[in-house]
Specification:
This protein is an all-alpha fold. The protein has a domain at 20-67: Winged helix-like DNA-binding domain superfamily/Winged helix DNA-binding domain (Arc Repressor Mutant, subunit A, Orthogonal Bundle), CATH 1.10.10. It has four helices and no strands. The relative contact order is 0.15.
């Protein structure tokens, strides 16, 4: 996994807080604890299909949140003269 700079780390942490608790747990188990989907299913007492669906939804939402956070705000954009 690529090393994140402090700004990227802060953006990722913020984006993670927008996820529902269960999705956040699954993302952490997958990418921090390096568990497989079947292992996550055991930990979360759900099916591997549910884990895959939750993970897909979480990644979609994280991408959207990170994309939105990288856009400049209107105050940061120069107005045309």
């Amino acid at each position: 996994m690529a090393k994140l700079n402090p700004r990227q780390q802060a953006a990722l942490k913020q984006a993670l807080t927008t996820l529902p608790r269960q999705q956040r747990l699954i993302v952490v188990l997958k990418y921090v604890d390096d568990l497989t989907e079947p292992e996550i299913a055991v930990v979360t007492r759900s099916s591997p299909d549910d884990v895959r669906a939750s993970l897909a939804g979480a990644m979609r939402d994280l991408r959207a949140a990170l994309k939105d956070s990288s856009r400049p705000t209107s105050s940061a954009v120069d107005e045309p003269s």
